[in-house]
Amino acid sequence: MPSTLQRDILGISVPEKPNTGKKFYLETFGCQMNAHDSEKVIGTLVHEGYAQVDTVEEADLVLYNTCSIRDKAEQKVFNRLNDYKKFQKQGKKFGVLGCVAQQEGEKIFERAPYVSLVAGSASYRNLPQMLVQLEAGNSRVTGLDDRQTSETFDTEFTARTNKHRGYITIIEGCDKFCAYCVVPFTRGKERSRTSESVLAEARRMAEAGFTDVQLLGQNVNSYKDPSGEMSFAELLAAVGKVPGIRRVRFTTSHPRDFTPEIVTAIETVPTLCDHVHLPVQSGSSRVLKLMSREYTREKYLECIAWMKASKRRISITTDIIVGFPGETEDDFQHTLSLLTEVQYDAVFAFKYSPRPNTPAITMEDSITEEEKSSRLTRVLDHQREIQRANYQHHLGEIAQVMVEGRNEARGQLLGRHSQNKTVNFTTNALIQPAIGSYVDVRITKALPNSLVGEMITV
Ligand code: 5AD
Ligand code: SF4
Predict the structure, then answer these.
(1) What confidence tier does 8 reach under pLDDT thresholds 50, 70, 90?
(2) Does 70 sit in the ligand 1 pocket, CB within 6 Å?
(3) Ligand 2 center to residue 354 CA distance, Å?
């Protein structure tokens, strides 16, 4: 019997092995890269004859795709594993995938002896072989990376859950080694896919009915075409010109590799979304140096100036870390003043969390938890005011919105603005617009985190 997921596998006739009767449950923690890796893991498992189920109870194989970016995220994974200890007697197999797996390696077997698979994301291309070992009864199967791999986890068996909006990985890993960050240790070295294979995937997606694609990479704009054909900006423009694609997003950009050509591409190719996520981390050049970010506040503001000079109004969002070792009140004030200067549309702020293997773990982390919390609150309060004013710019605008669902509680439809903002809207149309369709919405109200409007019917 074919698995229930086959229909979701992206526009390719998957030479699926007969269903083995084995069932897997997969839970994903963390970033968009992990979410997309999970879509590839699902595709690979279905191709191997497994069926996905919605509960741990029903599964033979329980997988966690994990995140270790901050200590809290990592603790969540171990708590979850603890919760499921009770199932070990039922003969279920447990696997830990992703960043915690790569970081902790075989130590996971000591900490959670009922786990029998530990695999980092750079080893997923070997998942079918690992499954064979697991099924043969091997209770300690590992797939760990030593930063040597030059391969990407490029698979045609991607089980995309959304039928209209999907991710395409263009670059994996990270070579930047920011002082606070585990990613270079968990995701391996930076490696890009050829522009040809990226474009082929975009074309297949368009043919399968996807209209909104998001190019993914830890540092998406550090993309280096192995075939030497295209720069990142050229690839962006080329994906934007694939027939059927209406929206192209990309995340996450690194200020060090941000170029005016990216802004020109956004300005000249209408399908490229008018939104750039450009993590700054701190507004103080002194702290940026301690973080090994390799740009100054001034250099970062130059990237912002290119975007602000664009004919298109580009929405800018960022990530901030507060309480990095040695951050003084004066440094922190520089972060607040940067927020004022840039006028971001969203800020994702985090308290510094010491991570294993990173250079910052040896720096004296003398800022108290209380002080970190206070700085976090001050950043968020400051940003809320900026955002409240910023979102007002949309009042009266007629925005194109991709319909994503219904907000039953409010009796409204829910959609996404090209700037990635949520739009709740009403409609008088007799026929409700379909999920995945694009409609024009007049914006009538601006909240700090979303927009409200009414659909224009003709
Ligand atoms: N502590 C706190 N925040 C961190 N980030 C990355 N590493 C850490 C850490 N050790 C944040 C950065 C990054 C985002 C994905 O997570 O802001 O941009
Ligand atoms: Fe981490 Fe820095 Fe690489 Fe981003 S660029 S993933 S923050 S090391």
Answers:
(1) very low
(2) yes
(3) 14
